[in-house]
Amino acid sequence: MDFSLTTPALLFPAISLLLLAYTNRFLTLAALIRELYSRYKSERDKKIIGQLHNLRYRIVIIRNMQILGVSSFFLCVLCMFLLFAGLAMVGKVVFALSLLLLLASLALSLRELQVSVDALTLQIQDIDELEKSA
Predict the structure, then answer these.
(1) Residue 66 half-sphere exposure, CB side, CA atoms within 13 Å?
(2) Of 63, 58, 36, 59, the residue nearest 116 (C-alpha)
(3) pTM for the model
(4) How far is it, in rounded angstroms, from Cα 57 to Cα 51?
(5) What is the Cα 60 distance to its own chain's centre?
(6) What is the pLDDT of residue 60?
């Protein structure tokens, strides 16, 4: 396999877009948490507490996704520097670590998606129960 400076550079757009998507998820959840917090202050509904716990868990997952993604990006840049310095073998190892961190970040993204879908499913079930009792 030909491993040159352009190989890790191919990940730059992908990692940048991934980090942007993670940031958008984070900002959306932060706005939702603020909204639920305001509602809880006025209503004191126990269901809101459950939603806030779920959102807190998702925020932690997204934070870890971002940390792994940024670390992957950092190692990708370090790999390019090592290749530029003529340390091809070390560069390959660093690039492999970068890919592993990126995989871990994507795995956490899948977990966050599962938690999100589970929360929506619970909410839909709640609506179904309200409709049955009405």
Answers:
(1) 15
(2) 58
(3) 0.84
(4) 10
(5) 9
(6) 96
